[in-house]
Amino acid sequence: MTLRLRPPTAEDEATLRAMHEQLAREDFEFLLADGPWPHVLAQVERESRGVGLPEGRVPADFLVAEVEGEPVGRVSVRHRLTPFLEEVGGHVGYAVAPQFRRQGYGSQILAQAVRRLAALGVDRVLVTCDDDNEASARTIERCGGVLEDVRPQPGGGPPKRRYWIQAHQG
Question: Which letter, b or e, does each residue of 46-78 get, where b requires 16 or more Cβ atoms within 10 Å of its Cβ?
Fold first, then answer.
């Protein structure tokens, strides 16, 4: 089954809000904007173009991961790093809804995000995960991630593993 990444649409609201609620129980922010759905879609579009960004945000693509027309997760592809993203968030933030895990979708999402960043001219992609998230660490390593270090989070929380993936091969 082919996974594809695409921008969210008006038809995605119920499904993506349900995934947001599911992943909130795991302390993961699935949707990166609040408010009425048209507002969320407008913010996604503005951030993709890098227009009217809130303080501390960079141009980023928020994309739905779907398989056979059904959303299974999402990815945020940040076009560049801020000091905060270099410490904690990285270039890529992705999630797979619990009912779709252990099917290889996380690896497909991350591999496509790395290719997207390579097309934007990013040579080395930073991907982070909580130190205790073994599934995410394995996914990142499967996609070529090389562990640089494990760092404490500013303000507490589990330490973050920081991996680098070479985006341009050869």
Answer: bbbeeeeeeeebbbbbbbbbbbeeebbbbbbbb
List the structure tokens of 136. Answer: 């995410």
CA distance 141 to 143: 5
Q: How many domains does the chain have?
A: 1
Residue 150 lies inside a defined structural domain of this protein = no
Strands 124-130, 146-151: pairing is: unpaired
160 inside domain: no
Joined together, the tokens standing for residue 18 give 């349900």
Give residue 169's pLDDT band: very low, low, confident or very high (50, 70, 90).
low
Provide the residue range defining the domain that includes 79: 3-123
**Is 71 a member of any domain?**
yes
pLDDT in tens, 95-129: 999 999 999 999 999 999 999 999 999 999 999 99
Report the predicted TM-score, pTM, of the whole model to 2 decimal places: 0.91
**Is residue 159 in some structural domain?**
no
Helix (H), strand (E) at residue 4: strand 3-6
| pLDDT (tens digit per residue) in 123-159 | 999 999 999 999 999 999 999 999 999 999 877 788 9
Q: Which residue has the tokens 């499904």?
A: 15
Which two tokens mark 68? 């056979």
